[in-house]
């Protein structure tokens, strides 16, 4: 059976530990491709084009929006960020799974354009614990803390738009659950029904 | 979060190895309850009431149909077989997962009465291999072989009514995939959305 890859979309409130889960998951599952975003902001020290981001100028970014070449995009202050469709779709067609770590607004745009994605929301063990984690990062001003933490509950209330949730209590457990979700999706009838029936029809 | 258990419905053509997969799965996952069927046929040597089957007389069986006390039932020649709702639902309410190994007609009845079940179809690696397995059992007459094998493709073509499929090529792999499916379902948002939102609302 020639199977299409799965688009895995990981989302969750700021500070919940999405990045840590994704990193460990990708280290253990090296066949899964991480999607690389495009941005108009300047590269920071150590950032490489095509590795950290695709660095684009503003004109190219606007052109890509115009041509519907983004799976999702956003403008944050003066900078544009987006996920180019091309690389993602090429990998999926080749049967490779692609992971997208993204914010909720982005995830909702992806869902509209590619509902076959698997949409996963990472939850904190509690709001109290989320607060502690944001504070521990230490990089937050009072204002940005309030902004991040204030939006956490409203983000969680959008969970009904997602297929799965994970509670980030124990990292290994969360990564194991993520692996199970992907394995289960590879056994989902609606995804591969045509392949299955074709295979058995050919035998008749 | 006080979570309801999951009803796991396992189905597949005759000879595919459902029983072997279920047995190994239950041995490894002792917290999962196997549903016990009711039947009007007489106990065979070694069969125990409440363990192998609930043995009922024909009148009691008809009464239970009348009172809609079966999740599914069928009459095969002179005997009745069915899955009593009560024990299944009591376990699910207690948060315990219940496994039901059943034929396709039965699975479709269960789906109608309890669409929250997880419906899993076991596929053979190929029709040729299924044929070999039925022959190897050796217990088949020519006629019963034709009947069993003849219905295999028409059963497989009903796979679209199922949530997941498993290919029974390698027993351990199939059992591992079954475990992943159940773990994934325990992280499904649509199943536990209300619990999740309630938990975080209480913290506000």
Automatic annotation (TrEMBL), chains A, B:
It is found in: Cytoplasm. It comes from the Bacteria. It catalyses: GMP + ATP = GDP + ADP. GO terms for molecular function: ATP binding; GMP kinase activity. GO terms for cellular component: cytosol. Keywords: ATP-binding, Cytoplasm, Kinase, Nucleotide-binding, Transferase. Its EC number is 2.7.4.8. Its main location: cytoplasm. ATP binds at residues 12-19. Residues 5-183 form the Guanylate kinase-like domain. InterPro entries: GK/Ca_channel_bsu, Guanylate_kin-like_dom, Guanylate_kinase, Guanylate_kinase_CS, P-loop_NTPase. The keyword Nucleus does not apply. SMART domains: GuKc (SM00072). The keyword DNA repair does not apply. HAMAP family: Guanylate_kinase (MF_00328). PANTHER family: GUANYLATE KINASE (PTHR23117:SF13), GUANYLATE KINASE-RELATED (PTHR23117). Belongs to the guanylate kinase family. Essential for recycling GMP and indirectly, cGMP. This is Guanylate kinase. The gene is gmk.
């Amino acid at each position: 059976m020639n199977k299409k890859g799965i688009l895995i979309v990981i989302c969750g409130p700021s500070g919940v530990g999405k990045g840590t889960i994704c990193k460990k998951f990708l280290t253990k599952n090296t066949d899964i491709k991480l999607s690389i975003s495009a941005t108009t902001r300047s590269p920071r020290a150590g950032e490489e084009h095509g590795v950290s981001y695709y660095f684009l100028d503003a004109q190219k970014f606007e052109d890509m929006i115009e041509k519907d070449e983004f799976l999702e995009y956003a403008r944050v202050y003066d900078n544009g960020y987006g996920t180019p469709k091309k690389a993602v779709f090429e990998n999926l067609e080749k049967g490779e799974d692609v992971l997208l770590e993204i914010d909720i607004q982005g995830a909702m745009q992806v869902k509209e354009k590619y509902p076959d994605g698997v949409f996963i929301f990472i939850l904190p063990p509690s709001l109290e614990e989320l607060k502690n984690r944001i504070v521990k990062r230490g990089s937050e001003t009072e204002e940005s803390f309030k902004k991040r933490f204030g939006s956490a509950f409203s983000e969680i209330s959008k969970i009904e738009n997602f297929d799965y949730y994970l509670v980030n209590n124990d990292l290994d457990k969360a990564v194991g659950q993520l692996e199970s979700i992907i394995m289960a999706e590879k056994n989902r009838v609606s995804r591969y029904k045509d392949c299955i029936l074709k295979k058995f029809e050919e035998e008749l």
